[in-house]
């Protein structure tokens, strides 16, 4: 059995998510019906036409599985659905999904009436699992997958430490895009397992690494002493951080950045502001890049001031040939992707970070001990989800005892520490590798074109075993390695409290708007 997923009416959103997950997939060519093709799981991304419906029906009769959304299920199989407003979704010991962080999904759409999993803000389930014509359907809410293409941003609260007085807030993407990916992956995994098949996908970590940690430094208006002090700490822990340099305030001493050993120097801005036109963004970028070029720095990456993102900025970043960018108003706490620009995918890889800095925690009245607890929880969360973690900091905000503790934990976990550019190169290699997996006589067989020695797959079996296996080993036997146990997800706050808009959030929003106008 080929373990490739088949797509009917492929969509940009679904392709983006499947590439993040790292599962083998391809679009079904219905023009010749692919009568011999055996896909364990089909994904219906839109409304199926007559050939598509016939193919789906035959697939279900053979005992196959289909994943779709409520409007498609109603159109194809007359499965009842009703419109509902969803603000957020919460998976806490969910029978299908287990434990996942809160998923913000502000939208209205159809939800299958007989849903059993993933409750919304009112406790009503949103995902259905149905036996249909001998096969199995999992039905997601209408518009669930396309929500990953949202460009809206909003001020949002994040979990607070037990000793913190307030929830820290930051302006980030409105939709929890990582949550959409996690739900999709869990649903696909279940559909494979219910057929007695393993679920195989590419590891998000290079080689045998059990985790990846990255550290981003935005140098906004820093002074030389703060830069040297932070660099000394990073050097002592052998952390190859990526410094996104704001060049206007350091134009007279930018050469210091070229002397930071074992660090990556990237570009932030000249004027600390994102503009609404391509031309204005390019003008600012050219001025800043001239400052870096004068001291011998040619950056590969870019991060926008304030984490802002728009298509004009994305176009400017592309034109200047950057390899990657990082903006948390587009995405945060997620795997990398090439953003969809409306008519095509961007050529610049987006690498999300965790958006809460020690400055934000300070404004939320967290003491140093509370900040340490906060970041330890983020490390545990990444470990529980088997995902990388990228934190960020401003040298002028100091509080280096917080990160000394973080770095010690990363060292104890033996995670691989990557600069942004190193992880960018790994991720592009991951995306470009053509590979497949099959399951024959209770054995998994892997194949790859132009294989890479530091690329592995994660395999989860129906009996709960989780293993890692090298994708390629020069024709030798591929031994599977049992993956370490993941810790439970840290306790999640009550979403009714965390999603309540407070006066403090309004103050931060007005301050943000004023500072943006002033700069």
The amount of helix comes to 25-40%
Structural class by SSE content: alpha/beta
* Shape category: globular
Low-confidence stretches: none
Task: Outline the structure in words.
This protein is of the alpha/beta class. The chain is built from 14 helices and 25 strands. The chain has a seven-stranded mixed β-sheet with strand order 2-1-3-4-9-8-7. Strands 13, 14, 15, 19 and 20 form a five-stranded parallel β-sheet that branches. It has a four-stranded antiparallel β-sheet with strand order 12-23-24-25. Strand 3 (41-44), helix 2 (50-61) and strand 4 (65-69) form a beta-alpha-beta unit. The N and C termini lie far apart (59 Å). The relative contact order is 0.13.
Brief account:
The chain is α/β, with parallel strands linked by helices and 519 residues long. It has helices at residues 12-21, 50-61, 70-77, 177-193, 224-236, 255-258, 278-293, 311-319, 358-363, 368-385, 400-413, 420-432, 495-498, 503-518, and strands at 5-8, 25-27, 41-44, 65-69, 81-94, 98-112, 117-119, 125-132, 135-140, 153-157, 169-173, 199-202, 212-218, 242-246, 264-269, 301-302, 324-325, 349-350, 389-393, 416-417, 434-440, 443-449, 456-460, 466-470, 480-482.
Features of this protein?
519 residues; alpha/beta; 7-stranded mixed beta sheet; 5-stranded parallel beta sheet; 14 helices
């Amino acid at each position: 059995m080929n373990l490739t997923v088949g797509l009917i009416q492929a969509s940009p959103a679904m392709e983006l998510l499947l590439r993040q997950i790292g599962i083998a997939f391809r679009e079904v060519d219905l023009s010749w019906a692919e009568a011999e093709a055996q896909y364990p799981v089909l994904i219906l991304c839109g409304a199926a036409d007559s050939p598509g419906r016939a193919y789906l029906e035959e697939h279900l009769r053979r005992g196959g599985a289909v994943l779709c959304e409520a409007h498609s299920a109603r159109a194809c199989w007359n499965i009842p659905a009703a419109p509902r407003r969803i603000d957020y979704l919460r998976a806490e010991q969910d029978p299908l999904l287990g434990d996942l962080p809160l998923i913000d999904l502000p939208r209205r759409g159809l939800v299958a009436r007989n849903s059993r999993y993933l409750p919304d803000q009112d406790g009503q389930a949103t995902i259905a699992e149905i036996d249909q014509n001998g096969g199995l359907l999992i039905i997601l809410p209408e518009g669930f997958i396309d929500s990953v293409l949202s460009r809206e941003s909003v001020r949002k609260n994040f979990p607070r430490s037990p000793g913190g007085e307030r929830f820290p807030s930051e302006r980030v993407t409105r939709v929890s895009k990582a949550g959409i990916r996690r739900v999709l992956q869990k649903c696909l995994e279940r559909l494979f397992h219910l057929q007695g098949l393993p679920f195989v996908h590419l590891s998000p970590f290079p080689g045998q690494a059990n985790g990846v940690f990255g550290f981003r430094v935005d140098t906004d208006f820093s002074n030389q002493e703060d830069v040297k002090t932070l660099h000394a700490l990073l050097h002592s822990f052998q952390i190859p951080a990526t410094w996104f340099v704001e060049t206007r305030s350091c134009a007279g001493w930018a050469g210091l950045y070229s002397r930071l050993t074992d660090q990556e120097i990237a570009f932030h801005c000249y004027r600390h502001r994102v503009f609404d036109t391509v031309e204005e963004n390019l003008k600012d970028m050219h001025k800043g890049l001239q400052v870096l070029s004068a001291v011998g720095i040619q950056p590969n990456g870019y991060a926008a001031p304030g984490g802002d993102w728009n298509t004009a900025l994305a176009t400017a970043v592309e034109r200047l040939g950057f390899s990657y960018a990082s903006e948390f108003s587009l995405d945060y706490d997620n795997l990398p992707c090439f953003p969809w620009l409306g008519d095509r995918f961007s050529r610049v890889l987006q690498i999300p970070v965790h958006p809460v800095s020690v400055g934000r925690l300070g404004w939320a009245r967290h003491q140093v001990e509370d900040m340490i607890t906060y970041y330890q929880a983020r490390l545990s969360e990444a470990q529980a989800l088997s995902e990388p973690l990228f934190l960020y900091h401003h040298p002028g905000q100091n509080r280096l005892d917080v990160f000394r503790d973080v770095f010690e934990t990363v060292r104890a976990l033996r995670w691989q520490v990557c600069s942004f550019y190193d992880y960018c190169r790994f991720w592009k290699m991951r995306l470009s590798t053509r590979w497949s997996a099959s399951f024959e006589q209770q054995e998994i067989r892997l194949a790859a074109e132009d294989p890479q020695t530091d690329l592995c797959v994660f395999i989860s079996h129906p009996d709960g075993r989780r293993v890692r296996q090298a994708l390629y080993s020069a024709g030798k036997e591929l031994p599977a390695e049992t993956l370490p146990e993941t810790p439970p997800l840290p306790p999640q706050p009550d979403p009714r409290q965390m999603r309540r808009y407070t006066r403090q959030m309004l103050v931060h929003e007005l301050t943000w708007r004023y500072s943006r106008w002033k700069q």
